[in-house]
Amino acid sequence: MAYFENVNQIKFEGHTSTNPLAFKYYNPEEKIAGKSMEELLRFGVAYWHTFTMDGSDPFGSGNMLRSWDKFSGMDLAKARVEAAFEFFEKINVPFFCFHDVDVAPEGNTLKETYENLDEIVEMIKDYMSTSKTKLLWNTANMFSHPRFVHGAATSVNADVFAYSAAKVKKGLEVAKDLGSENYVFWGGREGYETLLNTNMKLELDNLGRFFHMAVDYAKEIGYTGQFLIEPKPKEPTKHQYDFDVATGLAFLQKYDLQNHFKFNIEANHATLAGHTFEHELHVARINGMLGSVDANQGDPLLGWDTDEFPTDLYSSTLAMYEILKNGGLGSGGLNFDAKVRRGSFEPEDLFYAHIAGMDSFAIGLKVAQKLIDDKVLDGFIEERYSSYTTGIGKDIVEGNTNFHKLEDYALQLPEIKNTSGRTERLKSIINQYLLSALSK
Ligand code: XUL
Ligand code: CO
After folding, report:
1. Residues of the chain with pLDDT under 50
2. How far, in Å, from the CA of 32 to the mean position of ligand 1?
3. Residue 272: predicted pLDDT
4. What's phi and psi for 265, nearest 5 deg?
5. Which helix (H) or strand (E) covers residue 361, if one does?
6. Which of 127, 196, 198, 217 could bond 192 through an S-S bridge, CB–CB 3.0 to 4.6 Å?
7. 237, 294, 336, best to mutate for ligand 1 pocket (most atoms within 8 Å of CB)
């Protein structure tokens, strides 16, 4: 059965195409610095936003028109798998991602939940055997069910800690079974509402213990995918422990977990933390911790995680710049953790949204590669820091000086001269590069 019968295979038609169901910039085979766009961008579809999300918000009920919604229970779960693989093929993505509860309904007991999941995972495995679409990552949803009201691995309740461990144990088995390239931990309710009732030290120590047990279990079963932490500062919890990359990194270092994890960086989480997307990518990159990306964008006029499809070319360019500088994403990818707006409720909107996101990152990739080839920023930055390549600057970076010598040097300095940072000039160069890429 076809769930998207009005849509055929989405193809690349180039930037002059007026066909709404075609890529204008994303050409999977096109080579950028020797690698195909498909290999470099590694796009993924988020199962939850595309096949499970119904459009409901705190003020209104579900309104998405989804032909699989005529089913319920396990039949609905199976119909979603069929629809998902039809969608993956038509939009031509190499990856998808899911939470356990996105693909299979919870049963009345944990055992029943496992049985439901096993059945659907078998079906997914079957589809994957003939599909080019692979699993970028899976994860356990440990935030929706009321049992997680006080968190999962940081819950006040040891029974919830144990239940969460069981869910992640199962998730790692599923990851191994489906050949998932990564396993994600997003701490949905791993945080606190008020310090008046919170033992933060115990909660963080427990989170450290939980991650060590996950690392041990992956080793035990021979699962070799990359572990990823996805930072987010707030929502649903007022304060979340994995606030941003810097906070997450300090946590991993404190609990001696830094060699087992990297970060999955989401654009909208970065902006909620008061950072740009590229800031978070950069902090991860310079620490060797950039693992994967949840590609979306927020709305500067709204204060929450709006999870919009990414269409901001400035942001996609600076993001791709970081990713290229990182030498790519390794086993990671660009997962569209993004949902269509409530008003975009028709099934075709799922295609328009992904096309918009994929084209935006394809443009970002092209412009970023050109900025790197032409050493636009590298050249400027190299020159800006040139005082550290000779004389006293060289002594500083090579560790050949101390406060005594520096004081002697400062005392005999005539006049200190600084040069302009040229922010506006650099921004206008980026605009120039963006516009010239768009006209090709
Ligand atoms: C929530 C979010 C999650 C994670 C996976 O803000 O980003 O969907 O990506 O749990
Ligand atoms: Co996310």
Report:
1. none
2. 30
3. 98
4. -100, 125
5. helix 347-373
6. 198
7. 294
